[in-house]
Automatic annotation (TrEMBL):
Organism superkingdom: Bacteria
UniProt xrefs under Pfam families: S1_2, WHD_CvfB
GO molecular function, one term: nucleic acid binding
Entry's family note: Belongs to the CvfB family.
SMART domains hit by this protein: S1
Protein name, UniProt field: S1 motif domain-containing protein
PANTHER family noted in UniProt: CONSERVED VIRULENCE FACTOR B
Residue ranges constituting the S1 motif domain according to the UniProt record: 3-63, 143-205
């Protein structure tokens, strides 16, 4: 079933002078000729996005937007009018955010976190920066340890406020961020802990013991590359450890401990050294 505001895979039904018609159940949806890939034949399946044109008709395009219905993204305002702000979302027809859906008055040239949805009255795709209307932790669809998509929307005193899988709010603590991240960045992360009242802590690395084989291998390779010695230890700054190894201090200490217990590593005052046989 074809979905408005989503990327769909649709079979080509027939050619006409101004494009091709795509099969959508008992209906047909036009893909204008300027979007039809060269060599397209009836029966081919095309990847298209469905939206409404200026005459309110559902139409297809092979140009894909930066965000689909039911998703969040950071978008730039390119125009403001008497009806609201228009944002660049990767299609020739910009995305409208009506005044009533603006958490704060939008300004041309600025970027805002926006949720895209189908307006129930007009059946048109619109955006909203009033994210609390759409993002909620009342009923969670994630569990601790899950891999998730994160969109950074705000920096706070504790860390980075993120939207998880376009559905929930989460927090990424400052002391667990070892890369340059800020509002608008989209990254992969993991559910670290679900606290009281469904508050969610997230991490950029999977927590737990299953990360150790990778971390140990990474540490040994880094030591060998540096002649068997690294000036890192349990008092090193987290930033220095991440810059050298791409891992958190917590994971680093676990990996060092395991290698030490296996007698593959020497602990020195200012660093760590591989045993000669390594």
């Amino acid at each position: 079933m074809a979905e408005l505001g989503k990327i769909n895979y649709m079979p080509v039904k027939k050619w006409v002078d101004f494009g091709v018609y795509l099969e959508a159940g008992e209906d047909e949806i036009l893909l204008p000729i300027r979007y039809v890939p060269e060599g397209t034949e009836p029966g081919d399946t095309l990847k298209v996005f469905l939206y409404r044109d200026s005459e309110d008709r559902i139409i297809a395009t092979t140009e894909l937007p930066l965000v689909q219905a039911g998703e969040c993204a950071y978008l730039e305002v390119v125009q403001t009018t008497a009806v609201g702000a228009f944002l660049d979302w990767g299609l020739p027809k910009d995305l409208l955010v009506p005044f009533r859906e603006q958490d704060q008055r939008m300004v041309v040239g600025m970027y805002y976190p926006v949720y895209v949805y189908i307006d129930p009255e007009s059946q048109r795709l619109v955006g909203s920066s009033r994210l609390n209307r759409f993002i909620s932790n009342d009923t969670l669809t994630v569990a601790e340890g899950d891999a998730v998509k994160l969109l950074v929307v705000q920096e706070t005193d504790l860390g980075l406020k993120v939207v998880i899988n376009h559905q929930h709010w989460g927090l990424l603590y400052h002391n667990e961020v070892f890369q340059d991240l800020g509002p608008g960045d989209a990254v992969r992360g993991y559910i670290k802990k679900i606290r009281e009242e469904n508050k969610i802590d997230v991490s950029l690395r999977r927590e737990g013991f299953d990360e150790m084989p990778f971390a140990i291998d990474q540490l040994v390779r880094a030591l060998r590359k540096e002649g068997g010695y690294l000036p890192l230890h349990d008092k090193s700054r987290p930033e220095d450890i991440y810059d050298a190894l791409g891992m958190s201090k917590k994971v680093f200490k676990k990996a060092v401990g395991m290698l030490y217990r296996e007698r593959r590593l020497l602990l020195e005052k200012e660093g760590i050294r591989l045993m000669p046989e390594e």
